Amino acid sequence: MVKHQPLQVYEKQVFVSFVTGIYGCRWKRYQRSQDNSSRWECTWFLILCSSFLLLLFWAYFWLVAQNDFNEFNWSVYNRSGEWRDETVPLLASTTVGFSYITFLLILALFHISLGQQLNLYWVHKIGVLAALLTTVSGVVSVDDIWGDEWDIMLVSLQATAPFLHLGVLLSVTAVSWLVAGYVVHKERTNFQVMVLLVYVIILIAVYLAPLMFTCPCIMDQHRLKPRPDIIGQRGAPMLAPENTLISFNRALQHGVDSLEADVTISVDGVPFLMRDRTLRRTTDVGKVFPARQFEDASLFNWTEIRSLNAGQWFLENDPYWTVETLTVRDRSRIGNQTVCSLLELLRLAARANSSTLLNIRKPPPEHPRYRSWFMDTLWAVQKAGISQKRVTWTPDTDRGRVRGLQQAANEKLSVDEIRARGITSLTLHYSKASHKDIQEYLANNVSVTVYPVNEPWLFSILWCSGVPSVSSNAPQVLQKVPYPIWLMSQNAYNFIWITSDLVSLAIVTGIFCFQKWRINGMHNCNPEQIMLSAVAQRSSRDVNIMKEKLIFSDLNNGVNSTEELSLYPENGYARYSHGGLSR
């Protein structure tokens, strides 16, 4: 008599093996489980999700903060005294960490979708903790060094909010597959009901999110104001050393409407252009006057200042990663630049029929020109031959002495304060100039200049807000933006918003109905029938025989040697004959 133990067959699960193998190092079938995940592993999943959200915030911050990368490096320089591009390691670590955490999160979601038990490999746990702690330390450090930069997040939402809304809507809609698979059961627990309730609240909040934000570029085209004037802040510092003649010439070549410079008064009363308190960063004072390199720049006389090289540092440090684009002739000219005087700048502006905006740093009280700095500056303006109406300076001190010259305040003031102080223009950081404030200033005939504006997205929202002029380190970039990068009427956006919400609602409803039908079908079917039908419908090419055991035993009536016994002759799996077992 022949006793046959039933065949055990399995289907190749390459994708499941890939997912569980990379996530939890469970490459073999017997290592996997479809039991509920432990609380410990669920905790690690929450840590993974938290790390992803933090890194998503961190990556978005650095994406929009590109507008101020040089400001960040300058802040680090003022604290450390050494110039280096700190954005490179930050961007590299953020990219690697975000990619790694995102990949693990996708694998975890596949685990949930496939019904596999979560079991994060210990190496990945160390990696998740390392990414989380590194990001937290980065956030704390940036908050200490560059705390004001967080405002750019809110400013950027004026441009990105409609697109972020569509991205979040797509993500929440996709998550409905997992939520539906978890909560659609005949017997629901309180936790499942809570998960469903939280998901519905989040879904409704995402649907109604456009009611909570305003975007200047959602407007009718006929209401768009003229293109803002572009002011070359310190010339074109991405193409040449800041505050040098070649830098201002480059800015004029790229069509700027005005030039902006930082003015310091030398010890012998000569106004010259310098942004920093010392000469260390932008000159070779460490080589020429090593014992005085940490002194205030205003304590040098003009002869000493003029002897310094003001261009070689640009070629060596490459602060904007643009040196490789320069020709040999340009590098030679840059390498021979000297510190520029205010008189040279004003004469250049007069020849180009351009205006100037001067940020004047008053000398310290112990400076010999502390009481006469104003007359020194006014002398340079008069000697340059430029119209006084084309010269604007900040701060707006000594208003009684300034006659014929334009003055601008570099702080945010109320309309009443502006009228009381007789100011007609403001120079504001973009984080201080909201859309509402800009409209109020313009309605009261107050001109507003916003700085620094280096990215097209920021230039676009300020254009849509009606800003008359912007100050930029990248005039060569903004000149290539002939129109806001996106402009949409309110009716068009409302149509996109409502349509996307309705499509999402239909997809979510369909997913919940499908999951309900699938779960009910599984409860109504006999598992043995499912297995038998699955085996019967597959050919031998689609299944692998894990184990086939034949047990032969001689009984009293026996099987004679001439008899032939066939097992599954119709499928050809095995055949017993007089000669033995053949396949």
TrEMBL record:
Compartment(s) where it occurs, according to its Swiss-Prot or TrEMBL record: Membrane
Claim: Transmembrane helix is one of the keywords in the record: yes
Matching Pfam families: GDPD (PF03009)
Source domain of life: Eukaryota
Coiled-coil portions: none
Keywords: Glycoprotein, Hydrolase, Membrane, Transmembrane, Transmembrane helix
Membrane-spanning parts: 42-63, 90-110, 122-142, 162-184, 191-213, 495-514
Biological-process GO terms, alphabetical: lipid metabolic process; positive regulation of neuron differentiation
InterPro entries the UniProt entry points to: GP_PDE_dom, PLC-like_Pdiesterase_TIM-brl
The protein, known as: Glycerophosphodiester phosphodiesterase domain-containing protein 5 isoform X5
